Amino acid sequence: MNQQQKTAAEAATFRHLLKHLDANKDVQNIDLMVLADFCRNCLAKWYMAAAKEEGAEMDYDQAREMVYGMPFSEWKEKYQLPATPEQLAGYEARQEAKKAAVEPSTSGCQ
Prior knowledge:
- It is a single chain.
- By secondary structure, the protein is an all-alpha fold.
- The protein is built from six helices and no strands.
- The longest helix has 21 residues, at 3-23.
C-alpha cells in the first residue's frame, strides 16, 4: 500500500466511524469516555488539530459540526441526555484507574 492509498483508507475509515456514531446517537459521549476514553468532542479536537497541521483554518465549533453533522448546540438539544449517576461513577472510576496507572508504585518492590 502506498502513502496515497493509506491516506485514502484512513479517511474512509474516519468517515465510516462518523457515520457509525451518527447512526448510534443513543450512545452518549460519557458512555464513550467510560469505555474508550474518547468521545465525539475528542474526535473534533483531533480533527481540528490535524486540519491546522495541514495549514487549514478551522475552529473548534467547525470541527464539532463536522463530527456531529450539525451544530453542537443543536445536537446537544436533540440527543444529549443528562448523565446518570451510574455513568458519572463509571467515568470517575475510569479517571481514577488512569491516575493509578501512571503514579509510581508505593509498595516496597521497585
